[in-house]
Amino acid sequence: MHPFDAVRARSVVKTFGDVIALDGVDLDVAAGQIHGLVGPNGAGKTTLLGLVLGLAAADAGTLEILGMPMGRALSVADGVAGFVDGPGLYPTLTARQNLMTLLALRGERTSRSREVDELLGRVGLAEVSGDAVRGFSLGMRQRLGLAAALLGGPRLLVLDEPANGLDPAGRRQVHDVLTDLADSGATVVLSSHRMDDLASLCDEVTLLSAGRVVFSGPVHKLAAESGELDYRLITSDPEGARGVADGTPSLRRVTARNGSRQGDEQALVVRGPEAALDRLVAQLIGAGIAIRELGPVVPPLEAAFLALTGTEADINAEETTR
Ligand SMILES: Nc1ncnc2c1ncn2[C@@H]1O[C@H](COP(=O)(O)OP(=O)(O)O)[C@@H](O)[C@H]1O
Ligand SMILES: [Mg+2]
């Protein structure tokens, strides 16, 4: 359908003094795709998006944006919009005035005021369109930044951690806007330090860890990278279930580290391949033990993220950031 890559990076290196922020990164984003960059803090996501936006130049490697090679000169390529590290907004102006000012700067003043109102509605800011941006929450700023980026009708939209500060309703709104944009043929590249932000939205993800790509491809393939998972079972007979689990080949009982919750003294947590879990379930049923709950302790995508990036922190950080 789309003959070219909207983003094509090869062996991109970017250093800041002694810090190697990007260490030979390849990235392919097909036109019309929503592509997620995932990785823990410091992985290099913002640096890479900054290169795509032309805010900095790579030290080595090549980068093509919308089919054009990025040179040494710092400039946003034609058809590209977005921001890293939060959008640049005028705090004393209202949301609507911010967008109108952007249009005015491009010499388009009044002719598009209907479009501005429509955009503000789409990102869920209609009711606060007359309020000064100074009083906006992080999530409201993110949404206004998105509207500002959409004003120019970008063919490639670049967003750094757009889900930061958004409540679930805001998140859904942003998802819808980005999905509509991609449906119209534009390409979206966005980042997050959380896998679950991106899983439902992205066609493909690239997982960065310490400046290197540790995975790139469709989300369902990433889930398959998680290897052995921990599964948590609640049964009608905890003691009997433990006995059955101990007799199941390739399966071992473990003590859950993450995801402890109420009733866990009754829970059985086992680790092993899916096939071994299937055998356990069959044997439990055969033994007349009812299974009341069964699921992975950590969702497969999150488990793959943790395994490939070698981090544990994000899962535990989850409660505090929401
Ligand atoms: N302007 C800068 N000066 C010095 N170091 C930087 C700068 N920008 C990023 N870094 C370093 O580069 C690495 C990658 O950072 P960044 O791209 O911001 O990661 P992420 O967005 O994934 O959290 C980090 O070690 C960070 O400290
Ligand atoms: Mg960042």
Automatic annotation (TrEMBL):
Record has Acetylation as a keyword: no
Family: Belongs to the ABC transporter superfamily.
Organism in which the protein naturally occurs: Nocardioides iriomotensis
SMART domains in UniProt: AAA
Protein's UniProt keywords contain Ribonucleoprotein: no
Pfam families cross-referenced by the UniProt entry: ABC_tran
Ranges of residues in domain ABC transporter: 7-235
Keywords associated with the record: ATP-binding, Nucleotide-binding, Transport
Protein name: ABC transporter ATP-binding protein
Domain of life: Bacteria
Record-level Gene Ontology MF annotations: ATP binding; ATP hydrolysis activity
